[in-house]
Design a protein that fits this description.
318 residues; binds flavin-adenine dinucleotide; flavoprotein
Length: 318
Amino acid sequence: MAEVLVYVDHVDGDVRKPTLELLTLARRIGDPVAVHLGPGAGNAAGVLAEHGAVRVLAADAQEFTDYLVVPKVDALQAAAEAVGPAAVLIPSSAEGKEIAARLALRLGSGLITDAVDLEAGEEGPVAHQSVFAAAFTTTSRVTQGTPVITVKPNSAAPEAAPAAGTVEELAVSFGPSATGTRVVSRSRRESTGRPDLTEAAIVVSGGRGVNGAENFALIEELADALGAAVGASRAAVDAGWYPHAHQVGQTGKTVSPQLYVAAGISGAIQHRAGMQTSKTIVAINKDSEAPIFELADYGLVGDLFDVVPALTEEVRAR
Ligand code: FAD
């Protein structure tokens, strides 16, 4: 079976969930080979193997930490040339998309970004994208070179599929452009203790109906009772009530949790684009005609200032 390279998104060997999703999708196309760049391959190997990595190609060098994406592109190019994979899969983060674009150019390959599903095809992997605010789905495949495909987080549920996961050293030599952009400093965002929005199993989002930054405490309390991440509509973000990093939608994050709670959100198409693949959607809105109810599995017509605290209390009591 052909091998499929999967770029590992990690923090010091702590592998992020989108990579495990990619390993699951990669198994539809071939044997996943994880490419781990930077420190921590030893720590990462276990979870990569549990999710189907037949091999882990690892390279550690100061360049991966000290410079922006080009050293990683150099390493992925080396891996692609050594393996001759059926495809290279990369998480659709801002960094992932830049790496993918540069890699595709280097390999003379076609590129597909923001896929939401992948399958094997007779002439190579086939990718599905959700476009025009999720109004259409496109199906495409790369017709030139090794397909380089970025996949949106939450496109698949990570499945365990134990494999050997043997760690092998990847030999990398850096080109002249590798050290073109140096990282000056890094700062970690203060942790809220809540799960990452794009990876969370439950998301509670607030919109214009929340009516003020101070009232987002209600949304946070319900989120904390449920162990959820907090999201926001663009109206709430534009009003300065919640940070842009939490915006869900076409110009924000795409989430696909098991449970999505939308409070005081009307359900504009641009908001739906970021959450409509959630498994169960609960909408709380005082307007029974709000479009969000067309999408919701459970709709609560009422004032969120009554409903949300009541829900929080009920969840806490269980
Ligand atoms: P509104 O549409 O104003 O809805 C507020 C809702 O709250 C109403 O349905 C109202 O009935 C309800 N409500 C009010 N008070 C209460 C209460 N006390 N209790 C219960 N319900 C109450 N939007 C996004 O969200 N994400 C995006 O990424 C995004 N990208 C965009 C990109 C482009 C190019 C454009 C043009 C728009 C984009 N938008 C995006 C904006 C989008 O079109 C909507 O304007 C936005 O989603 C509306 O946010 P909202 O639902 O919070 O506000």
